[in-house]
Amino acid sequence: MRFSKVFLSESTDASLGVISGIKRFPSREICTPVAFTYTKGGSVPHLTREVLEMAFDASMPVVMPAENIAFAYEAVKVFQNGMTSFSGLSESIFWCSQFDHAVNSPKSLNQKDKVALWTRFGKKLIDADSYMDMMEAFKPDLFTVLSNNDTNKTSSNKQTRKSVDQSISLLQKCVERHKNSSILKDTGILAGIQGGYNVHDRTRCAETMSKAEVDGFVIDGLFTNGLEVENITFEDIEPVIKVTMDHLPKDKLKAVYGAWNPDVILKLVDMGVDLFDTSLAYLSTEKGCALNFKYPKTTKRSSEVLETVPTKKSASSECNLLTNGVATVDKPDDDLLVNGNWCVINTMPGGQPVFSDRIVNSVSSEDTNVQNEKETRKDTNKTDELNHKSKLPKLNTPPDPPKKKATPAEVEEKSAAKYSSFEFSLRDPSVREEFIPLDPDCLCLTCKKHTRAYIHHLLKTKELLAPVLLMIHNLHHYQMFFENIRHNVKHCGKAFI
Q1: What is a single molecular function from GO for this protein (predicted)?
Q2: Binding site for Zn(2+): which residues?
Q3: Per-residue pLDDT tens for 88-104?
Q4: Which of 117, 192, 215, 375 is the most exposed place for a label (fewest CB within 10 A)?
């Protein structure tokens, strides 16, 4: 496998590259930045082979986590034709990663020379030799070496140091085995840069692994997989990404796993990252959500990058909110005018007026006394009325009816999946009468033939077709996102415009 840069930006570290020299496909090239299609157990989630061929190019590159296909090792070893042929994806370029980054991993409990893989049968401790045996059986076109990535933002210095030490040791063993393997000699190999959020350990790991005979690097150990990564901002990872990239060769492949926020993806591209995966499309589908962010092709620098497709407005969107969440009316009635100025009709704790942007008249002490006297008289009248009512005979009024217990459907509506700025939930009751495509501008099979209301119905009735349609849309949307990234890097010199 070979990787070469074909375009370098002058303003950022963004670049366009080409992966070529694949042994199984000598004439095929992959343009970067690119997102390899995430698979589970050797299959694109929710999509059969026939649906995949109908909706997409069946030869698109795929990433298969070793955790998900370890169960098939013995069968594939006997089969002898590799994992892609075994799983019906023989036309796809195959990248074998180590862990499933779409599933939250439990504490690994690694040993000194072994790393835990969480397979469908539970935890499996594996050393470098066993891992390379799996790679020889699976025959990937590109694979990530075994490493300890069990770190995140809360990891201690001891944990990050242990992660780096073990990963360096495993890399040396895997590289040596790769050199001596007749099966893997033409296979691309990526080293996993570990160290959590510890800049010192990141630097040490990057400096050591940059000297190894590998084709590229995976910047790993930033999160413990699953949905956690959606909430990580670029500001959280920028220092460790920068120090890592500064110590890696500029001409080699760089990869990042995970379902990152699209904004973070754009900034990672501008820092020089080439490879990603489509786990965000899968996780959005699992939540019953559709990706709806907009990132168009452009030749001009614009301050707006991501826009959301307009969805049904809620009532709260028609009013302005103060910083503490108290709503204010845009245009008060004219009868609230006092001497030509707006008066305060309510106050919040601390005396802050609701109409905080209006001029408030001062009230004279004489007016205040008159007002206080009126309020005192009202209170006296209310007290007399209550005393009179208390002497009346009590009537046998029926008790209030018991509160109706919410049905499972009502509970599901109230607890509909929360969604981010780049996606919207099809479980939300507000879309049940929206007879429009998920994205009016999308050309995927789902948006051409089906509506939001229909997919909402499928989700409510738990039909198997619902995740199929959502996966088609989300995967297509994510692929178009990267196509536009490549276009904008070429014409604007950067992805985050």
Answers
A1: metal ion binding
A2: 442, 444, 447, 473
A3: 999 999 999 999 988 88
A4: 375
